[in-house]
Amino acid sequence: MIRLTELRLPLHHEEGALRPAILRRLGLDDRDLEAVRVFRRGYDARNPRAIMLVYTLDLAVRDEAGVLRRHAGDPRVGPAPDTRYQFVGRAPEGAPRPIVIGTGPCGLLAALVLAQMGFRPIILERGTVVRERTKDTWGLWRRGVLQPESNVQFGEGGAGTFSDGKLYSGIKDPRFLGRKVLEEFVRAGAPEEILYVSKPHIGTFRLVTMVESIRAQIEALGGEYRFGTKVVDLLVEPDAAGQRHVRGVALAGGEVLRADQVVLAIGHSARDTFGMLRDRGVFLEPKPFSIGVRIEHPQGMIDRVRFGPNAGNKLLGAADYKLVHHCGNGRSVYSFCMCPGGRVVAATSEPGRVVTNGMSQYSRAEFNANAGIVVGISPSDYPDHALAGVEFQRTWESLAFEAGGGDYRAPGQLVGDFLAGRASTALGEVEPSYKPGVTPTDLARCLPDFAVTAMREALLAFDAQIPGFARADAVMTGVETRTSSPIRIRRGLDLQSVNTAGLFPAGEGAGYAGGILSAGVDGIRVAEALAYAATGREVPR
Ligand code: FAD
């Protein structure tokens, strides 16, 4: 196969226009082109009046060597890479069962690949099965009732289940592990298009059924799930050389499960588990994350700015944006987890706190566009101990709870009022989507001063890029604190904890992923590292 990249055609091109364009581009006769597969389809909307579709294509041609020779030196023509996933090994006969803690994308992919290699993992999840969890999550959104063990952050499917389901990432991925994640998602019921559109997303409802389908596959391969099963302690014992080695876990009910290999895929909100790990002496350290608010605009406004007369085109879908501004006070402000045509959701896992995030359905057809507008902070912003970032997050989440009225409504403010430094007393035309509701107030009550200063400057800079971004009636709700993990559970080249052998910290909570796709990729990497360790081999560098 030959890979041809950067083949550009106008947005409204006829279906049959692709083949002649390929023939022209490669100087081929029609009979020389045997098969065409779209590997990726993106778009270039820099000129909204002349949007171009940009194709990456895999082609079967009659004389592959000849075509490659004729186009040697053209970076857009080359052999198509082999993206098929190769397992790194099989579980040895009678291999002990590893434990996977957490069923977010990281734990799910780790467990699936372990099961596919014959390891029969035991999967422990503090929350409930995804259907129960859906009811509990809606309980907070509809009635203001939080279930601390079953919510947007905790339960089958992990944090990304009630999300926009964006499935792209900027990570380096030389082994195409992201492709393996997407292929498993398609096998579990995701639409095929996620394999070729440049910014795939699946929305919330499909994620729910996919998570169930992956569970069925893992169980069919000998894996075993236990829900409502919170890990509250680690068994750590010295090995023959006197080094710390994990030997199992203790569960909330008092039961102890022994295992020499434990994947720790607990996400960024398992604050109690972070504390337990620190108390057990597992090496962890603070890391940078971000804090800010969600902002909402009419989706139609974003579509018109980004796509001009092509707003509403089916292939383009609802428009997104990605913004960054470096401020005079040395802070950077950026848009985070932008959800076109979606809604802002209550995302706390702890009582007495308010946290925002965003989600959408596959259709992305809701009225508002929303995104986090967040300010980067580093461990130098708070006292120097491993879990100080968690305390920092909690402080602002509690203040947001208070400012919202103490019943899980979010504090909200109009952009015009925020820029003018006055509290909002009413909301305008842009109706906030956050449930159970929004209390107009002054968001400066629940954000650090440096964040408020930086966001004021950035909103005006963003308005220069997207006219209307700083419109007076755009709504902001807060606080957005769970942008990534406030800690890193440091691991070595063998992907095991640097001071506790057999423990594989993984995914977003351990500080090695940010988003569904990268968490899934990290899950595969950790499953592979575990297989290498189980078969006495080193993880290749
Ligand atoms: P998680 O998904 O957080 O999973 C951790 C799991 O571990 C949880 O199920 C938890 O219950 C369990 N657990 C924790 N502690 C224990 C314990 N002690 N014992 C047993 N089980 C435990 N990312 C994107 O790429 N695209 C998006 O569109 C997107 N939208 C999002 C929308 C929302 C509302 C949220 C909250 C997040 C969104 N994200 C999105 C981020 C994405 O969800 C996370 O990056 C991803 O889920 C991290 O995966 P993970 O497996 O590392 O951790």
TrEMBL record:
InterPro entries per UniProt: FAD-binding_protein, FAD-depend_C, FAD/NAD-bd_sf
Any single Pfam family the record assigns to this protein: FAD-depend_C
FAD-dependent protein C-terminal domain: residues covered: 288-483
Organism superkingdom: Bacteria
Protein name: FAD-dependent protein C-terminal domain-containing protein
The species this protein was found in: Paracraurococcus ruber
